[in-house]
């Protein structure tokens, strides 16, 4: 059987497994094992021991459970509600009212969560009941949460960037800093869209001048936001100035989040156990996907798929801009079928050598890739953020999808800005030690 036929057969089986509902890491692992057997028979499995060890023996990957633990401490202690309340007092007077709080709250929580789904769930569970009670348009309310959650993997820390950096041997600290400015630009685009929509149609956001609670004093505002702000500044500042590695920063962040939760929140023994349990579950899921992806990388490396793909693109004689356009289209379609981590770990080993041949900066591409992954999080039928918001609200899935589509277009605007102004992603890393 030729290598091309093998690729088609294995790819078809993988799609069948996905459509059939098999959990993504199992689908990847089964496909990888089949590919290895088709290429080299039983002898191809001799190297799986080293692959299994190498996939998990990574200092960088230890940052993932620590950052997840940091976010869980903030969630379980109830501090996410205080952060949202504080942000509501800062931005509620802008056009859009509490819709602006959704965007700002998601951006703020993204700085500790590292996950789109966690950000959408945390802010959505707080905001959506309040928005429904005050008569906000459910479509744009849901869209602002769905899209706002995508900032969870762009604004550092980002689990997706940790995995990308591990696969490509790229500085994770620089990737974190590269995502900061584009993340703030995306937050600004979302806020501008909400403001324009609500100015054109004031009925979308009733101006009742009520926040989630009565507007408090400056001391209350400081109490809501100051501990959270100090946590982010210490974690991100230590990374930017080179005082810590991402794993060390994550450890410090988890410890500080625990202390903040004990002092300013309600982090009792039961909440502490729930935080640890959720951290183990989420970390296990992510690391299992990483392990399956390493098996897949081993398989395609054995067969030589990357070399064939590079030769194919060379025959097409694509320019750098045309290659980026093909990649954008590819990830747009793939995002409709797979979750973010799954499609990233499968495709990065294939694409990365080709990107180096074209002279594309791996840090810049890491940011572009995360934005494309964000897009997949909010596009049907497999956009996880859509279903997260559906599960925590009474809004119909159709309204949620229609409310999120304008925000999808704004992600393409950010992609265009990144292409024409790469300094948006490369300015911050350029100043690091």
Mean pLDDT: 82
Identify low-pLDDT runs.
Answer: 209-215
Q: What is the string of SSEs from the N terminus onward?
A: HHHHHHHHHHHHHHHHHHHH
Question: Can you tell me the overall shape?
Answer: globular
- Measured between the Cα atoms of the first and last residue, the distance is 51 Å
> What is the number of E strands?
0
Number of helices: 20
Helical content class: over 70%
Task: Describe the protein's architecture and organization.
With 433 residues, this protein is mainly α. It has one domain (46-430). Helix content is 77%, strand content 0%. The protein contains 20 helices and no strands. It has helices spanning 3-19, 24-40, 48-56, 63-76, 79-91, 98-113, 116-133, 138-149, 159-168, 172-200, 218-240, 246-264, 269-303, 305-316, 320-334, 340-357, 362-377, 384-391, 397-420, 423-430. The longest helix is centred in the middle third of the chain and has 35 residues, at 269-303.
Brief overview, please?
The chain has 433 residues and is mainly alpha-helical. It is built from 20 helices and no strands. It has one domain (46-430).
Topology:
Elements: H1 3-19, H2 24-40, H3 48-56, H4 63-76, H5 79-91, H6 98-113, H7 116-133, H8 138-149, H9 159-168, H10 172-200, H11 218-240, H12 246-264, H13 269-303, H14 305-316, H15 320-334, H16 340-357, H17 362-377, H18 384-391, H19 397-420, H20 423-430
Helix pairs in contact: 1-2, 2-13, 3-13, 4-12, 4-13, 5-6, 5-11, 6-7, 6-8, 6-10, 7-8, 7-18, 8-18, 8-19, 9-16, 9-17, 10-17, 10-19, 10-20, 11-12, 13-16, 14-16, 15-17, 16-17, 17-19, 18-19
């Amino acid at each position: 059987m030729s290598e091309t036929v093998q690729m088609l057969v294995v790819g078809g089986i993988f799609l069948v497994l996905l459509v059939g509902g098999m959990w993504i890491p199992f689908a990847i692992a089964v496909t990888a094992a089949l590919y290895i057997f088709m290429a080299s028979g039983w002898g191809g499995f001799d190297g799986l021991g080293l692959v299994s060890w190498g996939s998990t023996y990574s200092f960088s990957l230890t940052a993932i459970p620590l950052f997840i633990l940091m976010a869980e401490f903030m969630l379980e202690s109830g501090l996410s509600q205080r952060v949202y309340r504080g942000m509501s007092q800062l931005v509620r007077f802008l056009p859009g009212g509490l819709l602006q709080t959704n965007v700002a709250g998601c951006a703020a929580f993204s700085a500790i969560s590292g996950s789109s789904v966690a950000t959408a769930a945390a802010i959505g569970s707080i905001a959506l009941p309040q928005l429904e009670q005050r008569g906000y348009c459910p479509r744009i309310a849901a869209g602002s949460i769905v899209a706002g959650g995508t900032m969870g993997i762009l604004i550092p820390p980002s689990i997706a960037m940790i995995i990308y950096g591990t696969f490509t041997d790229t500085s994770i600290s620089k990737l974190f800093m590269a995502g900061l400015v584009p993340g703030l630009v995306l937050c600004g685009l979302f806020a501008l869209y909400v403001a324009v929509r609500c100015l054109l149609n004031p009925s979308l956001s009733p101006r009742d001048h009520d926040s989630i609670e009565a507007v408090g004093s400056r001391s209350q505002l400081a109490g809501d936001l100051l501990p959270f702000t100090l946590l982010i500044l210490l974690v991100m500042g230590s990374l930017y100035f080179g005082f810590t590695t991402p794993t060390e920063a994550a450890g410090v962040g988890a410890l500080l989040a625990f202390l903040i939760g004990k002092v300013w929140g309600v982090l009792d023994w039961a909440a502490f156990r729930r935080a640890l349990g959720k951290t183990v579950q989420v970390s296990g899921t992510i690391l299992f996907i990483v392990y399956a992806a390493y098996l897949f990388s081993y398989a395609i490396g054995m067969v030589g798929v990357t070399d064939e793909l590079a030769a194919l693109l060379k025959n097409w004689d694509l320019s750098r801009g045309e290659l980026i356009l093909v990649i954008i289209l590819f990830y747009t379609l793939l995002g409709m079928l797979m979750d973010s981590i799954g499609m990233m770990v499968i495709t990065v080993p294939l694409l990365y050598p080709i990107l180096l041949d074209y002279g594309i900066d791996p840090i810049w591409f890491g940011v572009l890739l995360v934005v494309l992954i964000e897009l997949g999080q909010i596009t049907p039928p497999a956009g996880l953020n859509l279903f997260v918001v559906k599960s925590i609200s009474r809004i119909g899935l159709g309204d949620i999808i229609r409310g999120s589509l304008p925000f999808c277009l704004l992600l393409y605007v950010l992609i265009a800005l990144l292409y024409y102004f790469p300094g948006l992603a490369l300015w911050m890393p350029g100043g690091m030690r």
